[in-house]
Hints:
13 helices; single chain; binds zinc ion
Amino acid sequence: MAEKSSVEKARYDFKKAMQEIVNIRGHGTELISVYIPASKQISDVMAYLRDEYSQSSNIKSKSTMKNVQGAIDSIMSRLKTFKDIPENGIVIFCGEVPRAGDQTRMVQHVLNPPDAITAFLYRCDSQFFTEPLQSMLLDKKMYGLIAIDRQEATLGILSGNRIQVLSHFESMVPRKHRQGGQSAQRFERLIEIAAHEFFKKTGDKATDLFLDKAQDMLGILIGGPGATKDFFVKEGYLHHELQKKVVDTFDTGYTDEYGLKELVENAKDAIQDMDLVKEKALIQRLFSEIRKQDGGLSAYGEDIVREAVNLGAVDVLLLSEGLNKRRITVQCPNGHTYEQTVPDADEKCSCAVCGTTATIVKNNDLVDDFFELAETYNTDTEIISMDSEEGGMLMTAFGGIAAILRYKIQ
Ligand code: ZN
């Protein structure tokens, strides 16, 4: 699989699993979450779980006790399949989840987190404990941050949702109240020299801290009160490679660490736009093909796109994150086998040919199914979020499945 696509896929899988896990509620306190850092020995985790298992025999409700013990059992047998804990650790969610009627169903999710798990954690609750994972974004979007006025400057990095302060320093620019005896003109001149030195120092600091990361930065955000920040940008104190990355300036009340937080908050819309630039560009490329008289190099709709992928005719496959469907393979006792896309799938259904009760032998997320298919043709696949107007249109107007083609198909 193309490396880019596999990152897309891992991100999709993680997001998808999280969406499901976050919404699960148990009957009682019987859903288990286990966070295991890479440094932890599996044998220690096993010992911990055996202890929890024996303690659970004190649980008053028999059904809760049975479910907790079942979940611990299931986690332990899953852990036996691991030789070592992966680099970032693993997170296991396991428990009996209510289904229609009085039925329950055992769910188990084993996630490879995009960021490292640092502490071992065991929770048993009526919902899964997901907070530590919420802030982990698989593809780290990085921005440079500068908050500046004439008194101080703070430089930092926004990575995912985290703000890291890299440098903070004060200027030598005198405050506006003037010392007695100095001429106003001379004083103004001193202020301007000090300010120039301070802006230059800030620019140099930005070069030291940001230049080697500039390639990975989506942009640089500049904040501060008043006009100083705009002056700093306009007068070219930043290295030209960094200058190109400046998204915009934003008003903030402060220029310290808190100022960086304000900056990120106030730049939220601009950040969202930047994050979506690539997705928007792909959809716009698709739309410009669709607008051509003969439909250009576009295809949309599940069947046509599937056919185009099978012909090896797809340049970029576009799948909406909003596609909540299953691709199932059905087999009936009378020998009928077929594939079908459905909104939701149970284990059984009736055969579309003869009506007999049939078995679903394969049940895949539709996006996963397309991913697998595209993989065999080495086709570039992009998951499109619903966070932009273009992404929303892909879902509502084109059913969430489209392709930009290499060549026209009949
Ligand atoms: Zn049949």
